[in-house]
């Protein structure tokens, strides 16, 4: 079956069905057309599924058919079921799709940070450009550690979380530009390299890693996830494959924007570790261990649970939420 030709022939009828299904108040004639259109579209969907079980055309038509069926049947959908489907299948599947891009973003960040730190450390006079000897000493011996203890626990955690979540959300949302994510990656990596070089110049490089390690593992990985999602959205625009660019951007954007929801939660967890754990007078092994467990939980969620959902055919978009919302508003 030529899906493009089939869609061109029947597409207007599907659009009309979708319009009727979205209409809150329908006349008797519209209701008749809704039922008739649903029956015809259901037949079309069966033919498409028979030719190719999983296609973008079939998935979109499936959503239209489901919305139309709910419009005249009013079948309720349990919100808890929709939430469960989102967090158990859709979100981990979306995160799983960007697993390799996430690792590439992480590798690029680490490489740039190391290059910057080594260059500053080995270039005579480079460290001095960032401040006077007294200012650098104060940064390394006082300011760096005081950052984690000068504010109240709750306020500090909230501030860290909101700031990082905003940065990550922008990386996903502006990924379409193709430039925002690389620029953000470079800026973040350079900041890490400069901080490491300054701490090294004062003999405090060990403190740099100790204070960052508890929360930094998950915080940085969350930023890598955001960068991976943004780059994948940009790539769908550059290389759409058999789809049109608008279609590829709409489909992949819908799927990967769900990653932003996951980032809110992962950054909340890293913010709690930074605000609660890092400042404690516990052994560093304990504090770093807590951060490692937090990162491990997110990695399991992305790679193991996400892999299962992906292999089961989950695409990681918000279709289930749309169906639930349609059911709750139909009537």
TrEMBL record:
Species: Curtobacterium citri
Protein name: Stage II sporulation protein M
Keyword tags: Membrane, Transmembrane, Transmembrane helix
Pfam families named in the record: SpoIIM
Entry keyword Cell inner membrane: no
Domain of life: Bacteria
Lineage, broadest ranks: Bacteria, Bacillati, Actinomycetota, Actinomycetes, Micrococcales
Positions of transmembrane segments: 100-120, 220-242, 254-272, 284-305
